[in-house]
Design goal:
Four copies of one chain form a homotetramer. Chain A has 156 residues and is an alpha+beta fold. Chain A has one domain (14-147): Roll (Thiol Ester Dehydrase, Chain A), CATH 3.10.129.10. Helices cover 22% and strands 40% of the residues of chain A. Chain A has three helices and six strands; from the N terminus they run ααββαββββ. In chain A, strands 1-2-4-5-6-3 form a six-stranded antiparallel β-sheet. In chain A, β1 (34-39) and β2 form a beta hairpin. Chain A is globular, with a radius of gyration of 15 Å. The interface between B and D is small, with 7 and 7 residues.
Protein backbone atom coordinates (compact mmCIF):
# COMPACT_ATOMS: atom_id res chain seq x y z
CA UNK A 1 0.00 0.00 0.00
CA UNK A 2 2.40 2.71 1.01
CA UNK A 3 4.16 3.02 -2.30
CA UNK A 4 6.89 5.41 -1.46
CA UNK A 5 7.40 8.06 -4.05
CA UNK A 6 10.76 9.08 -5.34
CA UNK A 7 11.55 12.53 -4.07
CA UNK A 8 13.69 15.25 -5.59
CA UNK A 9 15.64 17.19 -2.96
CA UNK A 10 15.57 21.00 -3.08
CA UNK A 11 19.13 21.12 -1.84
CA UNK A 12 21.80 19.12 -3.68
CA UNK A 13 23.85 18.97 -0.48
CA UNK A 14 21.02 17.43 1.52
CA UNK A 15 23.05 14.45 2.69
CA UNK A 16 25.89 16.57 4.00
CA UNK A 17 23.38 18.82 5.74
CA UNK A 18 21.67 15.83 7.38
CA UNK A 19 25.00 14.35 8.49
CA UNK A 20 26.16 17.66 9.98
CA UNK A 21 22.90 18.08 11.92
CA UNK A 22 22.98 14.47 13.14
CA UNK A 23 26.53 15.04 14.39
CA UNK A 24 25.17 17.88 16.57
CA UNK A 25 22.57 15.61 18.22
CA UNK A 26 24.70 14.84 21.24
CA UNK A 27 22.32 12.19 22.52
CA UNK A 28 23.18 10.03 19.48
CA UNK A 29 26.77 9.94 20.64
CA UNK A 30 25.69 9.16 24.22
CA UNK A 31 23.70 6.10 23.17
CA UNK A 32 26.06 5.05 20.37
CA UNK A 33 23.73 5.56 17.40
CA UNK A 34 25.18 5.99 13.93
CA UNK A 35 23.72 7.41 10.78
CA UNK A 36 23.40 4.93 7.91
CA UNK A 37 21.97 5.52 4.48
CA UNK A 38 20.81 9.07 3.67
CA UNK A 39 18.69 9.30 0.51
CA UNK A 40 16.10 11.89 -0.56
CA UNK A 41 13.20 11.31 1.82
CA UNK A 42 14.77 8.26 3.47
CA UNK A 43 17.22 8.01 6.35
CA UNK A 44 18.51 5.06 8.36
CA UNK A 45 19.91 5.03 11.90
CA UNK A 46 21.49 2.02 13.59
CA UNK A 47 22.11 1.40 17.26
CA UNK A 48 24.13 -1.52 18.60
CA UNK A 49 22.94 -3.07 21.86
CA UNK A 50 24.50 -1.94 25.09
CA UNK A 51 23.45 -2.99 28.59
CA UNK A 52 22.98 0.65 29.59
CA UNK A 53 20.17 1.27 27.06
CA UNK A 54 17.62 -1.02 28.64
CA UNK A 55 14.24 -1.17 30.30
CA UNK A 56 13.64 -3.41 33.29
CA UNK A 57 13.75 -6.71 31.34
CA UNK A 58 17.10 -6.10 29.64
CA UNK A 59 15.72 -5.09 26.20
CA UNK A 60 16.16 -1.73 24.46
CA UNK A 61 13.99 0.83 26.30
CA UNK A 62 10.98 2.09 24.27
CA UNK A 63 12.35 5.61 24.72
CA UNK A 64 15.61 4.58 23.06
CA UNK A 65 13.69 2.99 20.22
CA UNK A 66 11.68 6.21 19.95
CA UNK A 67 14.82 8.33 19.98
CA UNK A 68 16.31 6.74 16.86
CA UNK A 69 12.93 6.38 15.14
CA UNK A 70 12.11 10.07 15.75
CA UNK A 71 15.48 11.15 14.34
CA UNK A 72 15.38 8.77 11.35
CA UNK A 73 11.94 10.05 10.35
CA UNK A 74 12.86 13.64 11.18
CA UNK A 75 15.96 13.56 9.00
CA UNK A 76 14.02 11.83 6.21
CA UNK A 77 11.81 14.93 6.19
CA UNK A 78 14.71 17.33 6.61
CA UNK A 79 16.47 15.81 3.57
CA UNK A 80 13.74 17.35 1.42
CA UNK A 81 13.80 20.80 3.03
CA UNK A 82 15.55 23.84 1.59
CA UNK A 83 19.13 24.51 2.71
CA UNK A 84 18.23 27.46 4.94
CA UNK A 85 15.61 25.66 7.05
CA UNK A 86 15.36 23.71 10.29
CA UNK A 87 13.10 20.85 11.34
CA UNK A 88 10.93 20.41 14.44
CA UNK A 89 8.99 17.34 15.51
CA UNK A 90 5.37 18.36 16.08
CA UNK A 91 4.22 14.94 17.30
CA UNK A 92 4.74 11.24 16.82
CA UNK A 93 3.01 8.02 17.69
CA UNK A 94 4.82 4.74 18.09
CA UNK A 95 3.41 1.22 18.24
CA UNK A 96 5.70 -1.26 19.91
CA UNK A 97 5.13 -4.49 18.02
CA UNK A 98 7.51 -6.84 19.82
CA UNK A 99 10.17 -6.66 22.53
CA UNK A 100 13.31 -4.95 21.20
CA UNK A 101 15.43 -7.97 22.07
CA UNK A 102 18.58 -8.26 19.98
CA UNK A 103 22.07 -7.08 19.18
CA UNK A 104 21.13 -4.15 16.92
CA UNK A 105 18.22 -1.74 16.39
CA UNK A 106 17.69 -0.28 12.94
CA UNK A 107 15.25 2.57 12.22
CA UNK A 108 14.37 3.50 8.65
CA UNK A 109 12.49 6.78 8.31
CA UNK A 110 10.60 7.75 5.17
CA UNK A 111 8.56 10.69 3.98
CA UNK A 112 4.90 9.92 3.42
CA UNK A 113 3.79 13.40 2.35
CA UNK A 114 6.09 16.40 2.00
CA UNK A 115 4.63 19.86 2.46
CA UNK A 116 5.59 23.50 2.64
CA UNK A 117 4.92 23.84 6.37
CA UNK A 118 4.12 20.30 7.56
CA UNK A 119 5.63 17.00 6.43
CA UNK A 120 4.27 13.59 7.40
CA UNK A 121 6.76 10.76 7.82
CA UNK A 122 6.99 7.29 9.25
CA UNK A 123 9.66 4.97 10.54
CA UNK A 124 9.94 1.24 10.81
CA UNK A 125 12.22 -0.14 13.48
CA UNK A 126 13.65 -3.64 13.33
CA UNK A 127 15.68 -5.48 15.90
CA UNK A 128 18.38 -7.85 14.68
CA UNK A 129 18.89 -10.97 16.78
CA UNK A 130 21.37 -13.62 15.80
CA UNK A 131 21.60 -11.89 12.44
CA UNK A 132 17.87 -11.97 11.71
CA UNK A 133 15.88 -8.74 11.51
CA UNK A 134 12.36 -8.56 12.95
CA UNK A 135 10.02 -5.53 13.00
CA UNK A 136 9.67 -4.23 16.55
CA UNK A 137 8.15 -0.75 16.22
CA UNK A 138 6.39 1.62 13.84
CA UNK A 139 6.28 5.37 14.19
CA UNK A 140 4.13 7.96 12.44
CA UNK A 141 5.24 11.56 12.75
CA UNK A 142 4.41 15.17 11.84
CA UNK A 143 7.29 17.57 11.21
CA UNK A 144 7.35 21.34 10.87
CA UNK A 145 9.69 23.14 8.52
CA UNK A 146 11.12 26.37 9.86
CA UNK A 147 11.97 28.18 6.64
CA UNK A 148 14.69 30.79 6.70
CA UNK A 149 16.12 29.45 9.96
CA UNK A 150 19.13 27.35 9.04
CA UNK A 151 20.00 24.45 11.28
CA UNK A 152 23.40 25.76 12.30
CA UNK A 153 25.20 25.68 15.60
CA UNK A 154 24.63 28.68 17.82
CA UNK A 155 27.43 31.20 17.56
CA UNK A 156 29.74 30.76 20.50
CA UNK B 1 -11.84 18.07 32.30
CA UNK B 2 -9.61 15.17 33.15
CA UNK B 3 -10.60 14.77 36.74
CA UNK B 4 -8.17 12.18 37.91
CA UNK B 5 -9.73 9.60 40.11
CA UNK B 6 -8.19 8.39 43.31
CA UNK B 7 -7.01 4.86 42.82
CA UNK B 8 -6.64 2.05 45.33
CA UNK B 9 -3.56 -0.07 44.66
CA UNK B 10 -3.94 -3.86 44.61
CA UNK B 11 -0.49 -4.25 46.10
CA UNK B 12 0.34 -2.37 49.29
CA UNK B 13 4.02 -2.45 48.33
CA UNK B 14 3.41 -0.78 44.97
CA UNK B 15 5.89 2.03 45.56
CA UNK B 16 8.72 -0.30 46.46
CA UNK B 17 7.91 -2.43 43.42
CA UNK B 18 7.95 0.61 41.13
CA UNK B 19 11.24 1.83 42.61
CA UNK B 20 12.88 -1.58 42.20
CA UNK B 21 11.77 -1.82 38.57
CA UNK B 22 12.89 1.74 37.81
CA UNK B 23 16.30 0.90 39.26
CA UNK B 24 16.59 -1.90 36.67
CA UNK B 25 15.95 0.49 33.77
CA UNK B 26 19.61 1.04 32.98
CA UNK B 27 18.88 3.82 30.50
CA UNK B 28 17.61 5.98 33.38
CA UNK B 29 21.03 5.81 34.95
CA UNK B 30 22.70 6.57 31.60
CA UNK B 31 20.74 9.78 31.12
CA UNK B 32 20.66 10.74 34.81
CA UNK B 33 16.90 10.46 35.40
CA UNK B 34 15.59 10.02 38.92
CA UNK B 35 12.30 8.79 40.22
CA UNK B 36 10.29 11.36 42.18
CA UNK B 37 6.87 10.94 43.74
CA UNK B 38 5.25 7.50 43.47
CA UNK B 39 1.56 7.48 44.35
CA UNK B 40 -1.25 5.10 43.34
CA UNK B 41 -1.73 5.82 39.65
CA UNK B 42 0.73 8.70 39.56
CA UNK B 43 4.52 8.72 39.10
CA UNK B 44 7.00 11.53 38.57
CA UNK B 45 10.42 11.38 36.90
CA UNK B 46 12.91 14.22 36.79
CA UNK B 47 15.89 14.71 34.53
CA UNK B 48 18.47 17.48 34.98
CA UNK B 49 19.89 19.00 31.81
CA UNK B 50 23.17 17.69 30.45
CA UNK B 51 24.82 18.72 27.18
CA UNK B 52 24.90 15.08 26.04
CA UNK B 53 21.09 14.72 26.00
CA UNK B 54 20.44 17.13 23.17
CA UNK B 55 19.07 17.48 19.69
CA UNK B 56 20.82 19.69 17.13
CA UNK B 57 19.80 23.00 18.73
CA UNK B 58 21.06 22.20 22.21
CA UNK B 59 17.67 21.38 23.80
CA UNK B 60 16.59 18.05 25.28
CA UNK B 61 16.06 15.59 22.40
CA UNK B 62 12.41 14.60 21.82
CA UNK B 63 13.48 10.99 22.33
CA UNK B 64 14.82 11.83 25.78
CA UNK B 65 11.60 13.62 26.63
CA UNK B 66 9.73 10.55 25.38
CA UNK B 67 11.91 8.23 27.43
CA UNK B 68 11.01 9.77 30.78
CA UNK B 69 7.40 10.41 29.77
CA UNK B 70 6.96 6.78 28.67
CA UNK B 71 8.41 5.51 31.95
CA UNK B 72 6.48 7.96 34.15
CA UNK B 73 3.19 6.95 32.52
CA UNK B 74 4.19 3.27 32.45
CA UNK B 75 4.99 3.20 36.15
CA UNK B 76 1.81 5.14 36.93
CA UNK B 77 -0.02 2.20 35.38
CA UNK B 78 2.23 -0.40 36.96
CA UNK B 79 1.57 1.07 40.43
CA UNK B 80 -2.00 -0.23 40.15
CA UNK B 81 -1.10 -3.71 38.91
CA UNK B 82 -0.99 -6.83 41.07
CA UNK B 83 2.34 -7.76 42.65
CA UNK B 84 3.00 -10.69 40.32
CA UNK B 85 2.65 -8.78 37.05
CA UNK B 86 4.77 -6.92 34.52
CA UNK B 87 4.00 -3.94 32.32
CA UNK B 88 4.52 -3.44 28.58
CA UNK B 89 4.03 -0.26 26.57
CA UNK B 90 1.68 -1.06 23.67
CA UNK B 91 1.88 2.40 22.07
CA UNK B 92 2.20 6.04 22.89
CA UNK B 93 1.72 9.37 21.16
CA UNK B 94 3.53 12.50 22.17
CA UNK B 95 2.82 16.12 21.19
CA UNK B 96 5.80 18.40 21.58
CA UNK B 97 4.31 21.71 22.68
CA UNK B 98 7.43 23.84 23.02
CA UNK B 99 11.21 23.41 22.80
CA UNK B 100 12.52 21.54 25.85
CA UNK B 101 14.85 24.38 26.72
CA UNK B 102 15.79 24.52 30.38
CA UNK B 103 17.73 23.11 33.29
CA UNK B 104 15.31 20.32 34.26
CA UNK B 105 12.65 18.13 32.64
CA UNK B 106 9.81 16.80 34.78
CA UNK B 107 7.37 14.14 33.59
CA UNK B 108 4.25 13.35 35.59
CA UNK B 109 2.43 10.22 34.49
CA UNK B 110 -1.15 9.48 35.51
CA UNK B 111 -3.64 6.68 34.94
CA UNK B 112 -6.67 7.71 32.90
CA UNK B 113 -8.41 4.33 32.84
CA UNK B 114 -7.15 1.20 34.57
CA UNK B 115 -8.14 -2.16 33.13
CA UNK B 116 -7.57 -5.85 33.58
CA UNK B 117 -5.56 -6.25 30.36
CA UNK B 118 -5.09 -2.70 29.06
CA UNK B 119 -4.55 0.52 30.98
CA UNK B 120 -4.67 3.98 29.44
CA UNK B 121 -2.39 6.63 30.88
CA UNK B 122 -1.01 10.03 30.08
CA UNK B 123 1.96 12.15 31.00
CA UNK B 124 2.58 15.86 31.08
CA UNK B 125 6.17 17.00 30.69
CA UNK B 126 7.35 20.41 31.84
CA UNK B 127 10.70 22.04 31.37
CA UNK B 128 12.01 24.26 34.16
CA UNK B 129 14.02 27.28 33.05
CA UNK B 130 15.36 29.80 35.54
CA UNK B 131 13.14 28.13 38.09
CA UNK B 132 9.91 28.48 36.09
CA UNK B 133 8.10 25.38 34.82
CA UNK B 134 6.46 25.42 31.39
CA UNK B 135 4.58 22.55 29.70
CA UNK B 136 6.63 21.18 26.81
CA UNK B 137 5.06 17.81 25.93
CA UNK B 138 2.00 15.63 26.44
CA UNK B 139 1.91 11.90 26.02
CA UNK B 140 -1.01 9.48 25.77
CA UNK B 141 -0.22 5.81 26.21
CA UNK B 142 -1.67 2.30 26.22
CA UNK B 143 -0.14 -0.28 28.58
CA UNK B 144 -0.57 -4.02 28.77
CA UNK B 145 -0.56 -5.92 32.03
CA UNK B 146 1.19 -9.27 31.94
CA UNK B 147 -0.49 -11.04 34.83
CA UNK B 148 1.38 -13.85 36.57
CA UNK B 149 4.72 -12.68 35.16
CA UNK B 150 6.45 -10.76 37.93
CA UNK B 151 8.80 -7.98 36.92
CA UNK B 152 11.87 -9.53 38.44
CA UNK B 153 15.43 -9.67 37.25
CA UNK B 154 16.31 -12.69 35.16
CA UNK B 155 17.99 -15.39 37.15
CA UNK B 156 21.74 -15.14 36.64
CA UNK C 1 -2.35 17.77 35.95
CA UNK C 2 -3.85 19.38 32.89
CA UNK C 3 -4.76 22.68 34.47
CA UNK C 4 -6.57 24.36 31.67
CA UNK C 5 -5.65 27.98 31.27
CA UNK C 6 -8.19 30.69 30.76
CA UNK C 7 -7.92 31.93 27.22
CA UNK C 8 -8.69 35.34 25.80
CA UNK C 9 -10.25 35.14 22.34
CA UNK C 10 -8.83 37.36 19.58
CA UNK C 11 -12.28 37.75 18.10
CA UNK C 12 -15.11 38.94 20.33
CA UNK C 13 -17.60 37.18 18.02
CA UNK C 14 -15.89 33.82 18.38
CA UNK C 15 -19.01 31.99 19.54
CA UNK C 16 -21.08 33.20 16.63
CA UNK C 17 -18.27 32.27 14.25
CA UNK C 18 -18.04 28.75 15.73
CA UNK C 19 -21.80 28.27 15.55
CA UNK C 20 -21.94 29.42 11.93
CA UNK C 21 -19.14 27.05 10.94
CA UNK C 22 -20.68 24.13 12.84
CA UNK C 23 -23.94 24.77 11.00
CA UNK C 24 -22.07 24.26 7.72
CA UNK C 25 -20.75 20.83 8.81
CA UNK C 26 -23.48 18.88 7.09
CA UNK C 27 -22.44 15.60 8.66
CA UNK C 28 -23.48 16.97 12.07
CA UNK C 29 -27.01 17.30 10.80
CA UNK C 30 -26.88 13.82 9.28
CA UNK C 31 -25.96 12.18 12.58
CA UNK C 32 -28.04 14.52 14.74
CA UNK C 33 -25.21 16.22 16.67
CA UNK C 34 -25.81 19.58 18.33
CA UNK C 35 -23.43 22.21 19.53
CA UNK C 36 -23.52 22.84 23.28
CA UNK C 37 -21.41 25.25 25.29
CA UNK C 38 -18.98 27.44 23.32
CA UNK C 39 -16.42 29.19 25.52
CA UNK C 40 -12.95 30.55 24.69
CA UNK C 41 -10.88 27.42 24.10
CA UNK C 42 -13.68 25.02 25.07
CA UNK C 43 -16.50 23.58 22.99
CA UNK C 44 -19.06 20.88 23.71
CA UNK C 45 -20.95 18.71 21.23
CA UNK C 46 -23.73 16.29 22.13
CA UNK C 47 -25.15 13.42 20.15
CA UNK C 48 -28.28 11.48 21.14
CA UNK C 49 -28.26 7.77 20.41
CA UNK C 50 -29.85 6.52 17.23
CA UNK C 51 -29.86 2.93 15.97
CA UNK C 52 -28.29 4.06 12.68
CA UNK C 53 -25.05 5.31 14.31
CA UNK C 54 -23.78 1.96 15.45
CA UNK C 55 -21.02 -0.54 15.09
CA UNK C 56 -21.74 -4.25 14.96
CA UNK C 57 -22.67 -4.61 18.64
CA UNK C 58 -25.23 -1.82 18.69
CA UNK C 59 -23.06 0.83 20.38
CA UNK C 60 -22.01 4.19 18.89
CA UNK C 61 -19.40 3.48 16.17
CA UNK C 62 -15.85 4.63 17.02
CA UNK C 63 -15.95 6.75 13.88
CA UNK C 64 -19.02 8.57 15.14
CA UNK C 65 -17.35 9.14 18.50
CA UNK C 66 -14.32 10.45 16.59
CA UNK C 67 -16.47 12.72 14.46
CA UNK C 68 -17.88 14.68 17.37
CA UNK C 69 -14.60 14.59 19.33
CA UNK C 70 -12.65 15.90 16.31
CA UNK C 71 -15.14 18.75 15.83
CA UNK C 72 -15.37 19.62 19.53
CA UNK C 73 -11.58 19.88 19.80
CA UNK C 74 -11.31 21.59 16.43
CA UNK C 75 -13.83 24.27 17.35
CA UNK C 76 -12.18 24.70 20.76
CA UNK C 77 -9.06 25.68 18.84
CA UNK C 78 -10.96 27.73 16.27
CA UNK C 79 -12.61 29.77 19.05
CA UNK C 80 -9.18 31.30 19.75
CA UNK C 81 -8.29 32.04 16.12
CA UNK C 82 -8.58 35.44 14.46
CA UNK C 83 -11.82 36.24 12.64
CA UNK C 84 -10.33 35.91 9.15
CA UNK C 85 -8.93 32.40 9.58
CA UNK C 86 -9.93 28.78 9.02
CA UNK C 87 -9.03 25.59 10.88
CA UNK C 88 -7.71 22.27 9.59
CA UNK C 89 -7.19 19.06 11.56
CA UNK C 90 -3.59 17.93 11.04
CA UNK C 91 -3.94 14.70 13.00
CA UNK C 92 -5.63 13.17 16.00
CA UNK C 93 -5.32 10.11 18.14
CA UNK C 94 -8.19 8.60 20.05
CA UNK C 95 -8.15 6.03 22.84
CA UNK C 96 -11.43 4.18 23.23
CA UNK C 97 -11.72 3.59 26.97
CA UNK C 98 -15.04 1.77 27.16
CA UNK C 99 -17.88 0.76 24.85
CA UNK C 100 -19.94 3.81 23.89
CA UNK C 101 -23.11 2.22 25.24
CA UNK C 102 -25.75 4.73 26.25
CA UNK C 103 -28.42 7.21 25.27
CA UNK C 104 -26.14 10.22 24.69
CA UNK C 105 -22.53 10.95 23.72
CA UNK C 106 -20.95 14.17 24.94
CA UNK C 107 -17.59 15.44 23.66
CA UNK C 108 -15.84 18.32 25.38
CA UNK C 109 -12.89 19.75 23.47
CA UNK C 110 -10.29 22.00 25.09
CA UNK C 111 -7.19 23.83 23.96
CA UNK C 112 -3.98 22.54 25.52
CA UNK C 113 -1.57 24.90 23.78
CA UNK C 114 -2.57 27.64 21.36
CA UNK C 115 -0.07 28.71 18.74
CA UNK C 116 0.29 30.97 15.74
CA UNK C 117 0.40 28.13 13.21
CA UNK C 118 -0.33 24.98 15.24
CA UNK C 119 -2.67 24.50 18.17
CA UNK C 120 -2.78 21.38 20.34
CA UNK C 121 -6.13 20.36 21.79
CA UNK C 122 -7.82 17.43 23.42
CA UNK C 123 -11.30 16.09 23.90
CA UNK C 124 -12.91 13.89 26.48
CA UNK C 125 -15.95 11.93 25.40
CA UNK C 126 -18.47 10.57 27.88
CA UNK C 127 -21.41 8.33 27.28
CA UNK C 128 -24.52 8.86 29.37
CA UNK C 129 -26.44 5.72 30.27
CA UNK C 130 -29.52 5.84 32.47
CA UNK C 131 -28.55 9.40 33.28
CA UNK C 132 -25.01 8.57 34.43
CA UNK C 133 -22.00 9.86 32.48
CA UNK C 134 -18.95 7.65 32.03
CA UNK C 135 -15.74 8.50 30.12
CA UNK C 136 -15.56 6.44 26.94
CA UNK C 137 -12.86 8.10 24.79
CA UNK C 138 -10.02 10.58 24.85
CA UNK C 139 -8.68 12.40 21.83
CA UNK C 140 -5.48 14.40 21.36
CA UNK C 141 -5.28 16.58 18.28
CA UNK C 142 -3.11 18.99 16.30
CA UNK C 143 -4.80 21.82 14.41
CA UNK C 144 -3.49 24.21 11.79
CA UNK C 145 -4.61 27.80 11.54
CA UNK C 146 -5.02 29.12 8.02
CA UNK C 147 -4.61 32.85 8.58
CA UNK C 148 -6.20 35.22 6.13
CA UNK C 149 -8.55 32.53 4.81
CA UNK C 150 -11.92 33.11 6.44
CA UNK C 151 -14.12 30.10 7.05
CA UNK C 152 -16.96 31.30 4.89
CA UNK C 153 -19.22 29.46 2.53
CA UNK C 154 -18.05 29.33 -1.06
CA UNK C 155 -19.64 32.00 -3.15
CA UNK C 156 -22.46 30.50 -5.15
CA UNK D 1 9.35 -0.49 3.78
CA UNK D 2 6.14 -1.99 5.05
CA UNK D 3 6.35 -5.23 3.17
CA UNK D 4 3.03 -6.71 3.96
CA UNK D 5 3.19 -10.35 4.76
CA UNK D 6 0.80 -12.86 3.36
CA UNK D 7 -1.45 -14.03 6.13
CA UNK D 8 -3.19 -17.35 6.57
CA UNK D 9 -6.64 -16.96 8.07
CA UNK D 10 -7.61 -19.18 11.02
CA UNK D 11 -11.17 -19.31 9.77
CA UNK D 12 -11.84 -20.36 6.18
CA UNK D 13 -15.10 -18.40 6.23
CA UNK D 14 -13.37 -15.17 7.21
CA UNK D 15 -14.77 -13.15 4.31
CA UNK D 16 -18.34 -14.14 5.02
CA UNK D 17 -17.82 -13.34 8.70
CA UNK D 18 -16.41 -9.88 7.86
CA UNK D 19 -19.27 -9.17 5.46
CA UNK D 20 -21.89 -10.19 8.00
CA UNK D 21 -20.36 -8.00 10.68
CA UNK D 22 -20.01 -5.04 8.31
CA UNK D 23 -23.68 -5.41 7.44
CA UNK D 24 -24.49 -4.93 11.14
CA UNK D 25 -22.58 -1.64 11.31
CA UNK D 26 -25.63 0.54 10.80
CA UNK D 27 -23.57 3.70 10.42
CA UNK D 28 -22.14 2.32 7.17
CA UNK D 29 -25.60 2.24 5.72
CA UNK D 30 -26.32 5.76 6.99
CA UNK D 31 -23.30 7.24 5.22
CA UNK D 32 -23.49 4.98 2.17
CA UNK D 33 -20.23 3.06 2.63
CA UNK D 34 -19.78 -0.29 0.93
CA UNK D 35 -17.40 -3.10 1.58
CA UNK D 36 -14.97 -3.82 -1.25
CA UNK D 37 -12.23 -6.43 -1.36
CA UNK D 38 -11.91 -8.74 1.66
CA UNK D 39 -8.65 -10.69 1.73
CA UNK D 40 -6.75 -12.24 4.65
CA UNK D 41 -5.42 -9.25 6.56
CA UNK D 42 -6.67 -6.69 4.02
CA UNK D 43 -10.06 -5.02 3.67
CA UNK D 44 -11.27 -2.18 1.49
CA UNK D 45 -14.20 0.19 2.09
CA UNK D 46 -15.48 2.74 -0.41
CA UNK D 47 -17.67 5.77 0.16
CA UNK D 48 -19.16 7.88 -2.63
CA UNK D 49 -19.41 11.61 -1.99
CA UNK D 50 -22.64 13.05 -0.68
CA UNK D 51 -23.25 16.64 0.35
CA UNK D 52 -24.42 15.51 3.79
CA UNK D 53 -21.02 13.99 4.74
CA UNK D 54 -19.07 17.22 4.86
CA UNK D 55 -17.14 19.57 7.07
CA UNK D 56 -17.51 23.32 6.76
CA UNK D 57 -15.68 23.62 3.42
CA UNK D 58 -17.71 21.01 1.58
CA UNK D 59 -15.16 18.16 1.73
CA UNK D 60 -15.60 14.80 3.47
CA UNK D 61 -15.48 15.41 7.25
CA UNK D 62 -12.38 14.00 8.98
CA UNK D 63 -14.69 11.97 11.18
CA UNK D 64 -16.23 10.32 8.12
CA UNK D 65 -12.78 9.56 6.78
CA UNK D 66 -11.92 8.12 10.20
CA UNK D 67 -15.09 6.05 10.26
CA UNK D 68 -14.28 4.10 7.11
CA UNK D 69 -10.56 3.93 7.89
CA UNK D 70 -11.25 2.57 11.39
CA UNK D 71 -13.57 -0.09 10.00
CA UNK D 72 -11.30 -1.05 7.08
CA UNK D 73 -8.36 -1.56 9.43
CA UNK D 74 -10.55 -3.21 12.06
CA UNK D 75 -11.94 -5.74 9.61
CA UNK D 76 -8.48 -6.36 8.20
CA UNK D 77 -7.53 -7.49 11.70
CA UNK D 78 -10.80 -9.34 12.26
CA UNK D 79 -10.27 -11.34 9.05
CA UNK D 80 -7.39 -13.11 10.81
CA UNK D 81 -9.22 -13.82 14.07
CA UNK D 82 -10.78 -17.14 15.00
CA UNK D 83 -14.43 -17.69 14.12
CA UNK D 84 -15.68 -17.37 17.69
CA UNK D 85 -14.14 -13.97 18.43
CA UNK D 86 -15.01 -10.28 18.26
CA UNK D 87 -12.89 -7.22 17.59
CA UNK D 88 -12.57 -3.95 19.52
CA UNK D 89 -10.65 -0.83 18.51
CA UNK D 90 -8.30 0.07 21.35
CA UNK D 91 -7.00 3.26 19.75
CA UNK D 92 -6.13 4.82 16.44
CA UNK D 93 -4.23 7.81 15.15
CA UNK D 94 -4.97 9.45 11.84
CA UNK D 95 -2.89 11.95 9.88
CA UNK D 96 -4.90 13.99 7.40
CA UNK D 97 -2.56 14.50 4.48
CA UNK D 98 -4.73 16.53 2.14
CA UNK D 99 -8.32 17.79 1.95
CA UNK D 100 -10.69 14.90 1.18
CA UNK D 101 -11.98 16.66 -1.90
CA UNK D 102 -13.41 14.32 -4.51
CA UNK D 103 -16.18 12.04 -5.65
CA UNK D 104 -15.11 8.90 -3.75
CA UNK D 105 -13.17 7.96 -0.63
CA UNK D 106 -11.39 4.62 -0.52
CA UNK D 107 -9.86 3.15 2.64
CA UNK D 108 -7.60 0.12 2.49
CA UNK D 109 -6.82 -1.45 5.85
CA UNK D 110 -3.98 -3.90 6.37
CA UNK D 111 -2.57 -5.91 9.24
CA UNK D 112 0.91 -4.87 10.28
CA UNK D 113 1.35 -7.33 13.14
CA UNK D 114 -1.19 -9.94 14.17
CA UNK D 115 -1.20 -11.11 17.78
CA UNK D 116 -3.11 -13.30 20.16
CA UNK D 117 -4.57 -10.41 22.17
CA UNK D 118 -3.52 -7.28 20.28
CA UNK D 119 -3.22 -6.72 16.54
CA UNK D 120 -1.63 -3.67 14.95
CA UNK D 121 -3.04 -2.45 11.65
CA UNK D 122 -2.98 0.54 9.39
CA UNK D 123 -5.14 2.08 6.71
CA UNK D 124 -4.44 4.32 3.78
CA UNK D 125 -7.26 6.51 2.56
CA UNK D 126 -7.34 7.96 -0.93
CA UNK D 127 -9.76 10.40 -2.43
CA UNK D 128 -10.67 10.02 -6.07
CA UNK D 129 -11.26 13.26 -7.96
CA UNK D 130 -12.03 13.29 -11.67
CA UNK D 131 -11.01 9.66 -11.70
CA UNK D 132 -7.57 10.19 -10.13
CA UNK D 133 -6.76 8.78 -6.69
CA UNK D 134 -4.69 10.80 -4.25
CA UNK D 135 -3.69 9.79 -0.69
CA UNK D 136 -5.57 11.92 1.84
CA UNK D 137 -5.16 10.15 5.18
CA UNK D 138 -3.21 7.47 7.01
CA UNK D 139 -4.36 5.66 10.10
CA UNK D 140 -2.47 3.46 12.57
CA UNK D 141 -4.55 1.34 14.90
CA UNK D 142 -4.45 -1.14 17.77
CA UNK D 143 -7.15 -3.81 17.94
CA UNK D 144 -8.11 -6.21 20.69
CA UNK D 145 -9.34 -9.72 20.03
CA UNK D 146 -12.11 -10.92 22.31
CA UNK D 147 -11.67 -14.67 22.06
CA UNK D 148 -14.64 -16.88 22.74
CA UNK D 149 -17.08 -14.01 22.20
CA UNK D 150 -18.48 -14.40 18.71
CA UNK D 151 -19.49 -11.27 16.85
CA UNK D 152 -23.12 -12.21 16.51
CA UNK D 153 -26.25 -10.16 16.79
CA UNK D 154 -27.76 -10.01 20.24
CA UNK D 155 -30.60 -12.39 20.65
CA UNK D 156 -33.84 -10.46 20.42
Amino acid sequence: MPEFAEFTPKDADFAERVRASFARQTVMDLIGARLGRVAPGEVEIELPFRPDLCQQHGFFHAGVTSTIADSAAGYAGYSLFAADSSVLTVEFKINLLAPADGELLRAVGRVVKPGRTLTVTEAEVSVVKNGRAKPCARLSQTLMCLAGRPDIPEAG
